[in-house]
Design goal:
The structure holds two protein chains of two kinds. Chain A is of the alpha+beta class. Chain A folds into two domains: 202 residues, Metalloenzyme, LuxS/M16 peptidase-like (Cytochrome Bc1 Complex, Chain A, domain 1, 2-Layer Sandwich), CATH 3.30.830; 209 residues, Metalloenzyme, LuxS/M16 peptidase-like (Cytochrome Bc1 Complex, Chain A, domain 1). In chain A, the strands form three sheets. In chain A, strands 11-12-10-13-9-14-15 form a seven-stranded mixed sheet, with helices on both faces. Chain A has a six-stranded mixed sheet with strand order 3-4-8-5-7-6, sandwiched between helices. A two-stranded antiparallel ribbon of chain A has the order 1-2. Chain A is globular, with a radius of gyration of 25 Å. Chain B folds into two domains: 219 residues, Metalloenzyme, LuxS/M16 peptidase-like (Cytochrome Bc1 Complex, Chain A, domain 1), CATH 3.30.830; 187 residues, Metalloenzyme, LuxS/M16 peptidase-like (Cytochrome Bc1 Complex, Chain A, domain 1), CATH 3.30.830.10. In chain B, strand 1 and strand 2 form a beta hairpin. In chain B, 42% of the residues lie in helices and 19% in strands. Chain B is α+β, with helices and mostly antiparallel strands. Chain B is globular and about 60 Å long. The longest helix of chain B has 21 residues. In chain B, the strands form two sheets. A six-stranded mixed sheet of chain B has the order 1-2-6-3-5-4, with helices on both faces. Chain B has a five-stranded mixed sheet with strand order 7-11-8-10-9, sandwiched between helices. Classes of the chains: A alpha+beta, B alpha+beta. At the A-B interface, helix 2 and helix 11 of A face helix 3, strand 5, helix 4, helix 10 and helix 14 of B.
Chain lengths: 481, 453
């Protein structure tokens, strides 16, 4: 599973000798040994006559298998007037079938040692199933039942609506959720992804008929990919999948592809008033069209330098140097239509103004000054070391592949990701930073307006929203002539 | 503020659902464990070293588990185990700077954490495999000579008090959980909270902390488990080189005494200032966790509580007729004491119904055999849980370290794990009826009725 040829010089460094006899205390840390850069076997695939694409990833020898059914058209395929419908579909999918009542589905899942989850993303609807490998036939049979013979009763529909409502209610208590939802709404304004950031108001418009139509429109074999991860080969898997899903009939048309994301047109600042909030959450971001694999790797390095960990610039600035923030990080979200570069921080109310200035200043700094070679090498070292650690658990291993397939990522993003990171240098990182981090950014703050008012006085224009995310007013600073 | 410690089971929600003899890897399971079977050896100072190679990914997990927890704290000195867990993460040694351990691992892409429990404390990390020697050295340093100074002790004490205040004000039912532990365990060593009390923590001295550290965090009171992409001979060499010169500590005699307790039901009520809704704690004393009953109890736990198709979730959390808001519980073990706890929250009118459902299910289990299907499903879930608990290097290392510590008092080792698994698989419907009659009768139940203030 690994390529012993590629050895990381950057991780060879440091530290003194270690040849003391056993009974003496070693005073210095032992040196690192060379690390083998991870190269994973490529994914194998097979496309059935009905258009269903099967992917296989070997992961041995843990006796657990994972199955992900990835259906194209997640929240982006929800009708524009019914945002959130994909989330409802994910909640109700697998609840019951024509041949199994809800309790029987639960029993069937547990009888094979499984755990079944379904979730809507902007691009896809995903069904995930982890089970003991000896039960692969039963697991496929259950998935076949869920897909070919679903049952959507009024009762199940009402329960799913209640579940989505309470789930949102719970999330809305979190300042960061409120800030991120408004940010995504603004970043994706006019784009189908905007429906992903739906609010509770949307729920009352959903009907069972809408739900059934939506599921019927997207759950089609020629719009789906099935990923199996475990100790299985492509021939056996193809035979087993075909046995269960060969009657799944191909149908057209499919949901239309989504247009590429574009950067925001100008910098904007929005504020969500949450009257009793003790702290403030800041979410800032920008969007860009899809990147080639090498640029994706450079973006990962760039993100690492700006805010990937607590040793990155944002955390060191906002928390360690200025003591403004509890934490401050950056992250990348990858979609079929492009990337979103996001920054998140939670800060104390009294420093909200300077904290926003520092967030934007720190992001823009990398667009103006090239990173040092050492900083880039440290970021690469972290990413290369982190990758195998992050896919260690079976569900994380298969989840990472499912993420890549969900965003139409290529084979290389899975099997050669560490090698591609090695090829990133300071120049490439800086060129990308100049392109992305100099773009307009949208900033959303969630906090108590009254407590933050004085800290916000330095900003030219602020749009205010209530705690439900509804626009309230625009405050514009009068420019002195 | 940078401490990464997060006590997994420090208080409420801390169901240590680990029955001693449920710590199995198992005959079937061990055949399916990644890589060659684990091996164990002992250094001259008594440190048990367990290796579990698995070359699948270039990562390795290192766990050091100490048989040290709140049960060893004397009256008036509560909070010591939790405080030392924090110091072990943050404080340095003569050759390791403060926070260096955390920094070295985090910067290389690794992850680390620590968990303190009532009867054990674990320190663990997963790292790229080229970092193994360094991490073993770092672990040996904090076992050998943690630098506990007035400054870092005061800092840790402040953080502990802050954490305690935060949890007391932010976690509903924490106070009632503490009250329930007083009822069910009764003796101080087992009933006082791992978090400690504010008064005790304020009164702790530097000498108290140093003395507790010196007595319990020693090689002969610990297990070192390493799993992942490793070379056995080389790793053993590292372990010997870094750990063997650490002096052996005093031997702590294993405690396997029989727990004698009364057989009268106890029923109390408690006004919970933080409660968002009324709740019930229901508990049963199981006695010593070193008996054959534990194989059966583990399976009973799956039948009663674990998974959506288990009996209590099915009846209390059914989507169509939901009676309760939340339900949790399971087997809890504190050294040589074991109890079974059930916790349920519901609206005030539904609390009696919850109570009836729970007792009704137990009565049914006293009188009727469970079906072959239900028992089979419980065994599958149990096996799946074991597989998942050993499916990553970190999980496997934790599993092996905890198993070794738990089996030690009864003279068993991880070599016995396959046999332990087989015993679970051999549990019958008759065993279930017998254990429910023995330990879950109305005479032994302890109930705390939690009301909103």
């Amino acid at each position: 599973m690994k390529n012993a040829a590629a050895v990381l010089g950057i991780l060879l460094s440091v530290a003194g000798g270690n040849v003391l006899p056993a009974q003496e205390r070693i005073r210095k840390p032992p040196p690192f040994e060379p690390i083998d850069v991870l190269r994973l076997p490529p994914l194998q695939s097979h496309t059935f006559p009905n258009g269903l694409k099967l992917w296989i990833a070997a992961r041995d020898p843990a006796p657990v298998m994972s199955l992900h059914l990835i259906i194209g058209g997640g929240e982006c395929a929800s009708p524009p007037q019914l945002p959130g419908l994909a989330t409802l579909a994910a909640t109700v999918l697998g609840f019951s079938t024509e041949t199994r009542r809800p309790a029987e589905v639960e029993e069937a899942v547990e009888a094979i040692g499984g755990a079944l989850t379904a979730r809507a993303f902007p691009d896809v609807l995903r069904l995930g199933f982890h089970f003991l490998e000896e039960n692969v036939d039963d697991a496929l049979a259950l998935v076949g039942d869920i897909i070919l013979r679903p049952s959507f009763t009024e009762r199940a529909f009402q329960i799913a609506k209640t579940t989505v409502t309470y789930d949102l209610l719970e999330k809305e208590r979190d300042l960061e959720f409120a800030a991120k939802r408004l940010l995504l709404r603004q970043l994706f304004q006019g784009h189908p992804y905007e429906r992903f950031a739906f609010s509770r108001d949307a729920i009352r418009d959903w009907t069972l008929k809408d739900l059934v139509l939506f599921i019927d429109r997207i759950v089609r074999p020629n719009n789906a990919q099935l990923l199996l991860v475990g100790n299985v080969n492509i021939d056996t898997a193809s035979r087993k999948v075909s046995h269960v899903l060969n009657t799944w009939a191909r149908r057209d048309p499919l949901p239309a592809p989504v247009p590429a994301l574009r950067p925001p047109e100008r910098d904007r600042l929005a504020f969500i008033d949450v009257p009793r909030a003790k702290d403030c959450a800041i979410y800032a971001g920008t969007t860009l069209p899809p990147l080639a694999a090498a640029d994706s790797a450079a973006l990962a390095v760039l993100n690492q330098i700006v805010g990937g960990t607590q040793y990155s610039r944002l955390f060191m600035n906002l928390r360690e140097s200025n003591n403004y923030a509890y934490y401050a990080y950056s992250e990348i979200e990858t979609y079929r239509a492009g990337e979103a570069f996001l920054v998140r921080a939670v800060v104390t109310t009294d420093v909200i103004g300077p904290a926003v200035v520092q967030v934007l200043g720190e992001v823009r700094r990398l667009a103006k000054e090239p990173p040092s070679a050492q900083e880039v090498e440290q970021a690469k070292g972290y990413l290369i070391g982190r990758f195998p650690v992050s896919i260690e658990r079976p569900e994380a291993f298969s989840g990472r592949i499912a993420d890549i397939l969900s965003s139409n990522g290529g084979q290389d993003q899975w099997s050669r990701s560490s090698e591609i990171v090695i090829g990133v240098d300071a120049e490439r990182t800086f060129v990308l930073a100049q392109r992305i981090l100099a773009q307009p950014f949208l900033v959303v703050i969630a906090g108590a307006k009254e407590a933050c008012q004085s800290g916000l006085s330095g900003f030219d224009e602020i749009d205010f929203y209530d705690d439900k995310g509804q626009f309230v007013s625009r405050q514009t600073k009068r420019k002195e002539s | 503020m940078r401490s990464k410690t997060s006590a997994r089971s420090k208080a409420f929600g801390a169901w240590a659902c680990i029955a001693l003899l449920a710590l199995a890897g198992g005959t079937e399971a061990s055949q399916n464990l990644p890589g060659p079977p684990p091996t164990r050896s002992k250094l001259k100072n008594g440190l048990e070293v367990i290796l579990s190679p698995d070359p699948a990914l270039p990562v390795v997990a290192v766990v050091v588990a100490y048989q040290a927890g709140s049960v060893q704290e004397p009256p008036g000195k509560t909070g010591l185990a939790y405080l030392i867990e924090r110091l072990m993460m943050d404080a340095g040694t003569e050759y390791v700077a403060p926070f260096q351990h955390i920094n070295d691992i985090s910067r290389s892409g690794g992850t680390l954490n620590a968990d303190a429990y009532e009867d054990r404390t674990l320190f663990y990390q997963t790292i790229p495999s080229n970092q193994l020697a360094r991490v073993l050295w770092l672990e040996s340093e904090r076992m050998r000579g943690l630098q506990i100074t007035e400054a870092n002790f005061e800092r840790a004490r402040g953080l502990l008090l802050e954490d305690l205040r935060r949890r007391r004000s932010g976690e509903p039912y924490l106070a009632s959980l503490f009250a329930f532990d007083q009822l069910i365990y009764s003796e101080f060593a087992f009933s006082h909270p791992l978090l400690g009390s504010e008064d005790d923590i304020r009164d702790l001295t530097l000498e108290d902390v140093k003395s507790f550290y010196a007595s319990a965090y020693t090689p002969n009171n610990a297990v070192l488990a390493i799993a992942g992409n490793l070379n056995r001979a080389k790793t053993l060499d590292f372990a010997a080189r870094f750990f063997e010169s650490i002096p052996r500590g005093r031997d702590i005699p294993p405690s396997t005494e029989n727990w004698t307790y009364g057989r009268q039901p106890i029923e109390r009520s408690f006004e919970e200032p933080q409660a968002s809704s009324p709740a019930l704690f229901i508990g049963f004393r199981i006695g010593s966790p070193f008996s054959n009953d534990f194989y059966t109890l583990t399976l009973l736990d799956y039948i009663l509580l674990r998974g959506r198709s288990a009996r209590l979730p099915r009846r209390l959390l059914d989507r169509d007729a939901k009676i309760a808001y939340q339900l949790s519980g399971g087997i809890e073990r504190r050294q040589d004491r074991a109890v079974y706890k059930i916790f349920v929250t519901a609206s005030a009118p539904n609390i009696p119904a919850c109570r009836n459902v729970i007792f009704n299910e137990l009565e049914k289990l006293q009188r009727n055999f469970v079906s072959a299907d239900e028992l089979g499903r419980a065994k599958t879930r149990y096996r799946q849980n074991l597989v998942l608990r050993t499916s990553s290097a970190m999980d496997r290392a934790i599993h092996l370290a905890e198993s070794a510590l738990s089996l030690r008092p009864i003279g068993r080792t991880i070599d016995d794990l396959p046999a332990e698994f087989a015993k679970h698989m051999a549990v019958t419907d008759k065993d279930i009826v017998a254990i429910v009659n023995r330990h879950f009768s109305p005479e032994t139940r302890i109930v705390l009725d939690i009301r909103r203030r």
